[in-house]
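Lab notebook: predicted structure, single chain.

Context: the supervisor wants predicted structures on file for every construct in the current expression panel, including those that have not yet been purified. This is the next one on the list. No modifications to the sequence; it matches the entry in the shared construct table.
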Amino acid sequence: MTPVFYNNRMKIVTFTKEHARLIPFAAQLLVDAFREHWPDAWPSLEDGLQEVHEMLESDRICRVAVDDEKLLGMIGGIPQYDGHVWELHPLVVQPDMQGQGIGKALIEDFEEQVRLRGGLTITLGTDDEDNMTSLSNVDLYKNLWDKIRDVRNLKRHPFEFYQKMGYVITGIVPDANGKGKPDIIMSKRV
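Prediction complete. Output recorded below exactly as produced.
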């Protein structure tokens, strides 16, 4: 696939097994970027390597943002519902480069990749394991939709980033990560 250039220093390309040199860097990126708020996601390099190898399966989408062969970020997608829906999993950007448009560029590119494959919807889960939103440590079985409507971001939870990208909260999985630790499900039509 032809690389997509977003500016003079970054391009987004399909990540394949032929990029073997970058695989350990991608695995370490998962470990480093998720360590602060989601340390159980990929606690070790071995866990990160297992995830990267799963991302490289032929039925998935895996794209990376690179700058002169330096890995800046990565996004993956898993087909569901006969390819009508794609789960965005995961999105990761080098911690010291967040807020510079790399995540936005990766999502826009991912959405185009899904469209090219005939996908209609993208969905994602964005866990709240650290009391980062008003949906944490409350009874979500009472007045759920009111709580979703009135959700507040308490500690820079990424759900607001996804909202800016056009994603909406389409559900909650209460206690997904332990008591009072929900998974916030978001979706967007492409």
